[in-house]
Batch of 2 targets.
Target 1
Amino acid sequence: MLKIVKYVIRDIIRSRIIIAYALILLAASFGLFNLGGDVSKGLIGMLSLVLLVVPLVCLIFGTIHFYNSYEFIELLASQPLKRGTILMGEYLGVALALCGALLLGAGLPVLLYAATATGFTLLAVGLALTLIFVAIAFLGAVATRDKARGVGMAMLVWFYFALLHGGLMLLILFAFEDYPLEKPTMAMIALNPIDLGRVVVLLQMDVSALMGYTGALMKDLLGTTTGIASAAGILTLWLLIPLALACWIFRKKDL
Amino acid sequence: MLVSRHLTKSFGRLRALDDVGVSMERGQSVLLIGPNGSGKTTFIKCVLGLVIPDKGELTLDGTCLLDNPTLRRNIGYMPQIGRFPDHLKVGQIIEMMREIRRGTHIRSDEDLIDAFEIGKLAHKTARTLSGGMRQKLSACLAFLFDPEILILDEPTAGLDPLAAEILKEKVRAERAKNKLILLTSHILSDLDEITSDVLYLIDGRIRFYRPIAELFEEHGDPKLGRVIAKIMRETADA
């Protein structure tokens, strides 16, 4: 498996798209830290950037990579390799390459301007989202044969998690504001990895009370440490379930 | 050696393979023919474990192929369309396959790498290769680990005449070493000289499976293309 990972990463790095991704992140991060004036404003800007851009890039890049590697995956599958090994090799190659780009593009500025617990939490959330959304991208690509449909689905997934989910949540909160909604709200947050990531960073920022309903709620209900730990646990599920499903489908798939 | 029993596969409503039972032995060179969509590629892909049949079984020397991916070390496959990671160099692709296959084979066979002068392409990235060069690289990889079974899907399509001759010569040499060769082709006249048996599929069913010499004798014609055309016409009339 590691042999496959190695060559997948080599191929991706040479494609230069990933380098462009790292450089754009780098430029945007430096911009945010320099324009905002103070570090915490910069970090809030970085948070929005990471929460929006990382899932989008991972979904699109992961999906397109899978479809473009189709014939090569077929060749690998005709070798004495298990299907699971091939899929995990491809997955880890893509996910690790994107993690590397994120560490370069966002990690370096954080290290220079905001080497605090919050800064590192932000990076950890970025890495977790990378792993999760590449896994979701692979699940979509494995389940759909048609490339156009697969890429379209990836964009819909992003649209839902990045924009729609929050709107729906607000709608529900307003509609049922007369009822106690703490627990349902928590459940709704858990259903969106991007929201979870946001909550983790905001809890760490210690400005959660100022950052609206969900942050205050989470802090109130769980406290910082338990809150972060349970969010991390749910994020792990968000990684493992799509990955396991993708492997399960791929094992029985006709190539 | 390679035996299929009641092999059946449907894609939606289409029956790609319908109760296919054949037995192939070492030293045979079987040419799979049939109209488009007759199940040739599906049959090959079943043997390679790329397509999982709905029913039936496939065995290699008595062991089930479907449950044992490691048995595929005995099979070399040259696909119809070879595509490799765009930005890897030819040399890296060969090196990668060697790494993946480390410990799964007894000896390497680099005859084709030399004959096709792949060394000269080693620094080209896969993206810049022409169709014919890709075919050559695919062929090299299929033969590289000296497998007992060679599966070549449209091997001469896209190759220049010289390269096609080199490949055919290689196939002949491997068959002489008592290996099983499985070929498909649309251009019938192209491969009849390296074929020992013809497996004719229509709509996923075996129309016939006979030695090529017998076909020639029966129809009094030494050209496979004409013989097949005649049989197809007879089938259409009947």
Target 2
Amino acid sequence: MNFFKSKYFYKFSRNPLSVVGLVIVTTIVILAIFAPFITPFPEHVGPFTDFANKSKPPSSTYIFGTDKIGRDIFTRVIFGYRISLTLGIVVLAIAVPIGVTMGLCAGYVGRKTEMILMRITDVFLAIPALVLALSIIGLLDRPNLFYTMIAVSMAWWPWYTRLIYNITRSVKTEGYIAAAEIMGASKMHIMFREILPNCLPSLLTKITLDLGFVILVGSSLSFLGLGAQPPTPDLGTMVAKGASVLPDTWWFSLFPGFAILIVVLGFNLVGDGLKDMFDVDV
Amino acid sequence: MIKIQDISKQFTIKNNIVKALSNINLEILEGDCFAIVGESGSGKTTLANIILGIYQQDEGEVLFENKTLVKNRSLQLRKLIQFVQQNPMSTLNPKKTIYNTIALPLKIHKIVENNKYKTKVEELLSFVGLESNFMDRYPDTLSGGQKQRVAIARALATEPKVLILDEPTSALDVIVQSKVLNLLLDIKKKFDLTYIFITHDLSVVKNIANKVVVMNKGKIEETGNTIEIFQNPKSEYTKTLIRAIPTVTDEEDATKP
Amino acid sequence: MSNKLLSIKNLELSFKMYEGTLNVLKKINLDLEKGEKVALVGESGSGKSVTTKLILGLLNQKNVFKNGNIIFKDRELINLSQREFKKIRGNNISIIFQDPIAALNPVFKIKEQFFEVNCNGGKISKKDSFDKACEALLKVSIRDPERVMESYPFQLSGGMAQRVVITMAMINNPDLLLADEPSTALDVTVQNQALDLMDDLTKVTNTAVLLITHNMGVVRRFAEKVYVIYRGVIVEEGTKSQVFKNPGHPYTEALLQSIPKLNGNRIPIHNDNAPDYAEIPKFTHPK
């Protein structure tokens, strides 16, 4: 079946911005995957110096200019996407299963389980994600990318618990759940085989929307020096390094910053399109 | 076959105690088509839910072939009492194919061997008058009547002895309703089933049930053979109910009390 | 001036969807005179509910295509602007929906909802609106209108809520009342009360009623004239006794025959080899 001719794509593409988002996201993902082959100076990613070409403004050779030790900023932005996307995917790969399981249990089992799980969730929800992530990184020893991922995941799962909990509560009253119970289906079956499939459209939409936000939070953390450590190219770090020399060498910060903006925007537009496509609210 | 002895059940809603059922006694015999009739709030659905094991009664006992039925019952007992519910929109999981829906009870109760699910599902679909190509379809491509047929097939899958039908046709158009009701009657005969038919529609009851219990506000108003109750209702409430039935011919009006 | 209140001529409606164009109404003709009680009866998906939506101007999405005329008091409604419609809705035409509790806004008290409706009829103070509504509620034998006015919709029983909704719909003395399955969500005993109430109120103000329903029993109890609609086509038109005593179209016949009868002793059997009813031309009973 051809997706682009299906009813789903028809609904998705009724808002042209969603298609723009899809193009942006697809381009970024392709760029990130094939970064070593696409970028003009892949060697600039590591510990590389070329003082002859340091702090060059954008030109035809270096379209985004070079940084203060002569590395091509375009190359580093594309490789920065690799870090950002990895961060987004790993964070959600940790947060989503935790959040979904907790939400299903709390919503379906009810009573005491619901009380305990939802109060724990509320505690986590009460603290802003960035603050929570900061304090978790503070507790762990030296900042590095892995810790950042763990910290952001810890701040993120409660949102999924909330979402899945609410859907579960409404799906629970449907007739097919009663039918499965009367047949004698196990709780596990009902939660994961009957209820979960009904959560998937909302879940997929939220994951897409969140990829952008997670990247944004990850970049904020690395802006504060708590992300990937040099010389790994990280968009947040690059913005931070360049911020001190603004506005003279504006291209140090502008292009990485713009790169963050574009990827967050892209995921948001696709997320909105999915919302229309699945007809869900997240 | 099913004996209901002195059942009471109350719910607490925001500190208000609502008596859903008080001291209900009934006996349903094998082969009956036993109608439970009442308006909303009469407790008819609560009673069905107790028999099905969704609720636990506060007092009294339900006996099924002289075995006590409680909420947490064995698979063996669950299998024997199945139900078909009212709303065709919600009775099937929209994310599961018809095959998966009907195969689930087969898997839980190990009705057939693993490699025979497909033929069994085909057979069940044929009982309810659906082609085997329905197996790969999703519920949202089915009409209301077809959905109810699938729900009936699913209920038959566990080879039950009793089917509880909770307003199985009240959401359907009349022409479809007559088809589904006739199907239910055929199936009853074919599998020697006992039906407990919950409804508010007395014209359907008159044509399908052999025994009726009329319920009102959690109590039994009247119970007996269908013909007797319709010809000679004793309780005032039953009379009001029969008089209120919307009719389409003068002959019907003439039979009203 | 003629007695004609509403006249629908060759009304067509289609939705453009991914699957293609869906023709919902195919050249519908329908007439209503002042004070007349007409039923439009059909099964789910026959297009009966969208007809009311068209009369009220509620279908304006981009994928909706409509054609034909809806003439209400010598005025063409079909392409009227929303602002013009606002004046008509609630004043000249009002509507009663199937589920009375869902029709009332759960976060406002009944008196506030009455106030909004009363404002439609011109400027009115809160006090006057309250008194006017209480008076109207008394007439529908609600004994303690003050308590009802101070309640939220969920505090009322279904029958009570339906009486409130009917009163609300009738308070501005509309010329036309659209009743979309007004009794379906109610218990049978309350159902008849709701129908009788509608009957009483409309008689006083000479309001015409267009009753939309799938229930032939309700039609027989309430309507004077009957239109039977099947898949977007009107298949039969006639007075109540004509349609019920001598159904002229095979579809009407099948519909009446399929209803389990109170004096019957078996479920009617529907002929599975019935022809496509939509293909058989419309049957109009002589006037």
